[in-house]
Structures are given as C-alpha cells and as structure tokens.
Amino acid sequence: MATFVLVPGAWLGAWAWEETARALRERGHTAVAVTLTGLAERADLGGPQTNLSTHISDITDLVERQDLRDITLVAHSYAAAPVTGSAGRLGHRLERVVYVDSAPFASGMCMLDLMPPQVADQLRQQVNALGDGWQLAMPPIDILGMSSSLDGLDEPELERLLARATPHPFGTYTQRLADPADPGPGVDRVLIACHDFKALLDAGIPMLAYLNQPPWRRFDLPTGHWPMLSAPAELADLLDAAVS
C-alpha cells in the first residue's frame, strides 16, 4: 500500500482532499493532506513574508516530522510549484510524484509567468488595493470559470468552494523557484490531466511534449480543474491505479 501526501492548490486547505483521502484510505493506503501556511486553518500563520520557500518547507517539514517514507507526493494546480521545489529535497523518502492538472515548474519560474502580463499586473493591483499588499482573494465564480474549468462542480460544491476558500499569500506567486534538485531517475512521474489540460497536451504544444513521453505516465480524468471536489472517488481510483 502507498503513502500519499496530498497538496492542494491556491486558496484551498487540506479540507479539499477529504473525500479523495477517505477513498484512498478505504483502499488501504495512507493519505495525509497538507494545509500550507496562510491558508484554511493555518491562515493566521501567514503574512507578507509568506512565499514559495515557505510552502516548500511546509511540505518537507511535514514529511520529515511524521517520518513518512516511500511517499507519493501529489500536487494540484498551484501546488506544482512547491511540490517541484520539495521533491528533490525529499531524497530517498520520495517514491513518486503526481501532478494533477498541473506540471513541474522550471528553474527560475514563478506562478505569474503562467499568465499574460496584463493579467499579472491586474493581480498585483488587486493585492495592493484589496489584499493588504500580500493576499490574493479567490475571484468570483464567473471570473474563475474563465481561466479554469468548473465542469463537474454542482451548486453545493461551488458554494462550498467559495465558502471555504481563503485568500492566498501572493508572495508564493511572485517568488521564483530556485534551482530545484532533481528527484532522481528512480522517482516515478505521473500526470493526471483534466479537461482543459488534456486539450493542451493533445494539441502537441512543443513545451509540453515531454509530458507525453517516458518516464511520464499519463492518466486522463474527464472533469474540471478541481477533481477532488467534482470527482473525488474517480480521482482516488486513478491515484490507486498509479501506484498499483
């Protein structure tokens, strides 16, 4: 049986993984969900100093503190950045890394690089005007749906997402990833692609081509960008299949 460390995306806490974690435990696995600094029940620990390095340390410290070994480290969305940074630091403790609707970050890359310059500028202005200079609030659903697929989320789940989301520490978007250590050739690499990301991978975009080739193994999940909310059991099935 596998040990999963589940890292949520922006605005989310460990709560987002509850149903998927429960399904993994029912299959006999260990599932540990992480809440990163400044979010959910750890919101009061965040501040202007919270950045990508903070979240990388959150992951590595939890793994070492709980003495977890042979772990499958799972990143959803934004979590690709801190998971990439922590994967190489975990050494022999890491067996597998799984990117859910996300992909590894390159050295020197930051979250804002994934956005058009005008969008990045709008976010900076929003944080300065409404987020005390360091907090990025989750956008309204209609705006959120313009950049990320909401497929599969019914009204109760959308309401839950909005109600439980917390402003995200913006320093994690602006700090660039230092040279990440290579997790090593023995670490299994898995990609779970949902609707929009699947379309990008199938489009043959050169910079993503490596994700369709060994050593990467790809699984597709026909749902939107938040599969732990829209298809938690199905996501658990794929995670189970990835370690089988």
UniProtKB/TrEMBL annotation:
Domain AB hydrolase-1: 4-237
InterPro entries registered for this protein in UniProt: AB_hydrolase_1 (IPR000073), AB_hydrolase_fold (IPR029058), Sec-Metab_Biosynth_Hydrolase (IPR052897)
Domain of life: Bacteria
GO molecular function: catalytic activity
Gene3D superfamilies attached to this UniProt entry: alpha/beta hydrolase
Database matches in PANTHER family: AB HYDROLASE-1 DOMAIN-CONTAINING PROTEIN-RELATED (PTHR37017), ESTERASE_LIPASE_THIOESTERASE DOMAIN-CONTAINING PROTEIN (PTHR37017:SF11)
Name used for this protein in its record: Pimeloyl-ACP methyl ester carboxylesterase
Species, as recorded: Saccharothrix ecbatanensis
